[in-house]
Amino acid sequence: MPHHPAPLTLADPPTDRSDPGPGAPAPGPGTAHRGWRTGRLRDAHRREAATAWAFVSPAVLIILGLSVLPVVWSLLLSFQANDLVTPSRWVGLDNYRALAADPHFSQAIRNTLLFTVLFVPLSLVGGLALALALNRRIRLVGLYRTLIFVPFVVSATAQGVLFSFILDPEFGAANSVLSRLGLSPQGFLTDPGQALAVLVGITLWSGTGFCVVVYLAALQDVPESLIEAARLDGAGRQHVLRHVTLPALTPVTVFLVLWQTIQSLQVFDLVYVTTKGGPLGSTTVIVYFIWEQAFKSFTAGYGAAAAYVLAFALCLIGVVTRVVRGRTHPQGAAR
User: Fold this and answer.
1) pLDDT digits over 223-256, tens only?
2) Is 81 helix (H, G, I), strand (E, B) or coil?
3) Could you tell me if 78 and 307 are in contact, meaning their C-beta atoms sit under 8 angstroms apart?
4) CA distance 59 to 61
5) Are 115 and 201 a contacting pair, CB within 8 Å?
6) Is residue 245 classed as helix, strand or coil in its secondary structure?
7) What gap in Å lies between CA 192 and CA 199, rounded to an integer?
8) pLDDT in tens, 21-54
9) Residues of the chain above pLDDT 90, percent
10) Which of 1, 13, 43, 311 has the fewest CB atoms within 10 Å distance of its CB?
């Protein structure tokens, strides 16, 4: 018969030799071994936690220093009268009461809402139309997709400088083209009746590309089997779009509505570079109003109160969007 190797006996690990106290039972070898392993695991976990915090702590400090602390400080500032130079004075809700009675703030709200109402639907409809057109197998489709997305990566400052030259009422290329067509020159950014609409057009030129890319990605995920089944049932192109494609794009559309709304409510760079809130306050939006009050008029507490009104509006939009999505897609909202 084959001989099995003799078992190898290992020495017991070192045990805690401290006095367990009078009357306590003497620990056996198994108890000591488990206690030794537990201590080693606890020490290893502590070392891993210390290493993890060593790597994470710079990011945590940056987040606390640039996000959390400024938010808390601006909230306290909104209840104070502060000019960023002299010591502040606590005024409670006076800043918010003044905002409610300020006609300039009311005008900024109206301009912002009008900008949002014009920009969000047009960017979504234009983005969906372009995405449907570019979702086909056509020649140079990659080039077309790139050309549509390029304006999105151009900074708002560069856009403002570019269109300020193009739309200059005296020397701009836009009025030169209009004159060649026999049309009267326009004021564009210098006309109170046109300035806000022109800003919406510039933002559409740059912001629609984002919607196109998102919709293109979503269209790739629409099950081809559903489209083929609808066509076999006799559905035309419009019926397929209405009953198959658009319902599949609903979650993406909800996201884009929320994203574009937040972007339009926070527009600032383009206004600052092109019109600076004019002419006659026709393009003064909420964020520009906040900057003007805090850093131009040196009423930081008043500007902080306006900023928190905007923050509350953004939070309300997020909550409403979440509720609507939860009612339409309860499983997706739960995830």
Assistant:
1) 777 777 877 777 777 777 777 888 888 889 988 9
2) strand
3) yes
4) 5
5) no
6) helix
7) 12
8) 555 555 555 555 566 677 788 888 888 888 888 8
9) 36
10) 1
Asked whether the bond before 185 is cis by omega within 30 degrees of 0, the reply is: no
Which tokens is 59 given?
């990011």
In 10 A of CB 182, how many CB atoms?
Answer: 6
pTM: predicted TM-score of the whole model, two decimal places = 0.78
Instruction: Print burial letters for 71-103: b (CB count within 10 Å at least 16), e (below 16).
Output: eeebeebbbbbbeeeeeeeebeeebbebbeeee
Number of C-beta neighbours around residue 281 at 10 A:
16
Mean pLDDT of the chain: 84
Low-confidence ranges of the chain (pLDDT < 50): 8, 10-11, 13, 15-19, 333-335
**Helices 300-328/250-265 angle, 10° precision:** 170
What distance in Å separates the CA atoms of residue 177 and residue 169, rounded to the nearest whole number?
12
Both tokens of residue 264?
């339009």
Residue in the structure block whose two tokens are 């393009």: 283
DSSP letter string, 63-79: HIIIIIHHHHHHHHHTT
In sequence order, what are the residues at sequence separation of 6 or more whose Cβ sits closer than 8 angstroms to the Cβ of residue 254?
Answer: 321, 324, 325
What pLDDT is attached to residue 333? 47
What 3-state DSSP class applies to 184? coil
Tokens found for residue 124: 């979504």
Sign for the CA dihedral angle at 87, 92, 96, 102 comes to negative
Distance (Å, rounded) from C-alpha 305 to C-alpha 308? 5
Cα separation, 240 vs 219, whole angstroms: 13
Place of tokens 């993406």: 252
Q: Which of 208, 181, 199, 46 is nearest to 122 (CA)?
A: 208
* Euclidean distance between CA atoms 29 and 269, whole angstroms: 72
Which one, of 199, 207, 218, 221, lies nearest residue 149 by Cα? 207
* DSSP 8-state secondary structure symbol assigned to residue 88: P
